[in-house]
């Protein structure tokens, strides 16, 4: 193990894949493992390329301290050189893996998936690797339905120890910038406006749970552009998509709606931290998620989480936490229409609007009890997912890959399936 040398191919951005990759590179370096990090950029839906130095610098200036790493530029610089690697760790969507596989090297890939089973064409891609890592039981079970013999290693993200934080003053500064009174209870949600993130139902549930006289606000941080309704999912500005929903709700309710503050742009690491400090309760009506890094960070911060009770977040939130939203499973739509990953033979969760409304009202009405419970849960989560133990398990994956041909990863490594 002392001679292990790794190449990590991952995104340099604020997506879940980006944040998870940054965390693993930083933790591997701190563990003394020679690692070369290859920051990647997507070129369409199936092609990927290493970022040029000037692209890396431009990206770094826009995403200060992303992933809570104190010196992200230093991390990039210290991991740029070749290390004559033994194995390759692919922390990016499997669509891109075929272009990153190297002859004569062992490969492990990290998979995030958010419905009941894998896309059919991913099966062959995953079979080209030596092992697959997943963050949660949820994704593990989805893969096992398609690939029961695939060696699977459950490796949660590392995101909780030894990283940069901002003070509570940053949250108050953001409150002032958004002109929110001190008495306002702030629900907040983060993620691109995509079908699986289900912002439309989130807006509907919030607007039906409260009215304009209630001292509540939903701060919705999302992408500049989002996707409209099926089957074509036309791209539009997210402020226009939000306005469509608000207009519809105004006609239905014939009353003024509660305040919604839209932040339609990518936040850098410092601004993300400030929003977690500002927010009183993280909320998501996602159809499913492999882990949800923003919910994870909210929970680690001791913020209550109101979220669909189906997905990888159940690993760290539990099976029946106070903010769990009821759901029913339904066929996924054909999505994306140009190159589908989801088909109706897969399932995802349809969260109950009534349950979401009830959980959000409870978060406000029983605020002290929910916050006390969330603080206790934060300590439990930090103990359950220590950085050193997670990195040790990841290194065991690569020890298993370097074992003699025919060795059983379940006995030779850290197979957690």
From TrEMBL:
Q: Does the keyword Coiled coil apply?
A: yes
This chain belongs to the protein called Glycosyltransferase
Q: Which residues form a coiled coil?
A: 353-380
Fetch the PANTHER family from UniProt: PUTATIVE-RELATED (PTHR46656)
Keyword flag Coiled coil:
yes
Its source organism is Ottowia thiooxydans
Listed A to Z, the keywords are: Coiled coil
